[in-house]
Amino acid sequence: MGIRHLVCALFIAAAAATPAAADDSQSLTTLDSLFDEAASNQADVIDDSTISKRSTCTLKNLSVRRPWGSLSQKDRKAYTDAVLCLQSLPAKTPASVAPGAKSRYDDFVATHINQTPFIHYSGTFLAWHRWFTHNYEQALKNECGYKGTQPYWNWALYSKDPASSPIFDGSAYSMSGNGQYIANKGPITLTLGDFAPVYLPAGTGGGCVTSGPFKDMKVNLGPVSLPQNDGSVLSGTGLEYNPRCLKRDISAGVNQAYANATSIVNLLLQNNNVGDFQMVMQGVPGSGSIGVHGGGHYTIGGDPADDVSVSPGDPVFYLHHGMIDLTWWTWQHLDYNNRLNAISGTGTFLDSPPSANTTLDTVIDLSYAGGGPIAMRELMSTTDGPFCYTYAR
Ligand SMILES: *[C@@H]1O[C@H](CO)[C@@H](O)[C@H](O)[C@H]1NC(C)=O
Ligand SMILES: *[C@@H]1O[C@H](CO)[C@@H](O)[C@H](O)[C@H]1NC(C)=O
Ligand SMILES: *[C@@H]1O[C@H](CO)[C@@H](O)[C@H](O)[C@H]1NC(C)=O
Ligand SMILES: [Cu+2]
C-alpha cells in the first residue's frame, strides 16, 4: 500500500470512528489552550511596567472567576444563597419607573428591560454587559455578604446534554433544574425585521422549575416580547408587576447547534475585527444563526430567557454573561495591542434608528442597578480601571 493510500485509509477510519460530535471535543481542547494563552498574555501585560496603568491591580490581588462545575458544593450554595438574598432586599427602582420591580434583584432586570434597544447589536453590547455583570457581582458581595466571585457557564462543556450539567441538574448545588415537562410544544420562531425567521427546537421542560435553590422564586417583570411555541408573541412593557414561577425549557438542540466549542474556536475567535466578532457572537441577521449569545439564552428557554429584554429574570443569565465576557476577554488577550480598545457600532440596535458611533468616551449608566455612569474606556480592560479580575478554566 502506498503512503497516500495508507493516509487515506487512516483518514477514513478516523472519520468513521469519530462522528461530528467528536470534532467538538477536539475544539474543546483547542479552546482550553486559547484560554490559557489569553491568561498568560494577560499576566504579561499586568507585569509589564512599561505599560502605563490607572489602577493598582496586580497579579497578587486579581480575583478569579471560575466555571460553575469547578466550584465546591459549599461555594455553589454560597452563591445561590447570595442571589436569594438579593431577591429578598427591597428595590431601589421607584414604582414610577418600574411598578413591578420589587427587589434589589429586580433593579437589574428593570435596567436591562429599559436599555435593551441600546445595548444589543450596538457598540456598547460587550462593555455594557461586562459592567452589568460586575455590578451584580458587587451587589452580591456588598449587599449580601458573598465572598466569592461571579461563576460562569461554559456552554461548550455540556452542549450535548445541558440539563444534566452541574448548572441545571436540579440538585441543591445547581442553579435549579429544568421546567416541568410540557408535551407537544412547537419550535420557537424568532423574527428579526424582514429577515427569514429562525426556528429553534423546543426543549424538554416548558413549565415551572420545581427543584433546586430557585424552585420558589418569583419572576416579577415581563413580558416585553416573548415568542410562544405556537408561533405567536406575547408583548408588554415588561415593567408591570406580573409575579409568576421561574420557567425553563432546556434545549440540547439549541445548545448543540449554536453554543458549541467549534463555533467559539472556528467562527468567533477567528475574527480580527471587533465588529465581525460581536456580530457573529449575537448572530448575523439573516444568516440563520443566533450565535453563542443567542445560543445560551435560548438553551435556557422559558419566559424570562426566551424574552431578550427580561432574560436577567433567570439567575443563570449572569453565568451565561460570565462566559460571554470570558469569550471577549479571550479574544482581546489573544492580540492585546490591536484588540483591547477595539469598539464598533452605534448607540442603537442594528443602528435603528440611526445614531452616533460608539467611542471610548461614550458613557453608559446602569441607573438603579448601580455602579454609576462610566465611560467605555474604563470598561475595556479587566485589570485596569474599576476591574481587577481574570478567568480560570
Ligand atoms: C492590589 O495590591 C496593591 C499593592 O499591594 C494595592 O495597592 C491595591 O490597592 C490592590 N488593588 C486591589 C484592586 O485590590
Ligand atoms: C456548532 O455550531 C455551529 C455554529 O452554529 C454549527 O454550524 C455546527 O453545526 C454546530 N455543531 C454541531 C455538532 O451541531
Ligand atoms: C462611524 O463608523 C463607521 C464604521 O466604522 C465609519 O465608516 C463612519 O465614518 C463613522 N462615522 C462617524 C461620524 O465617525
Ligand atoms: Cu442583554
TrEMBL record:
It comes from the Eukaryota. This is Di-copper centre-containing protein. It comes from Hypoxylon rubiginosum.
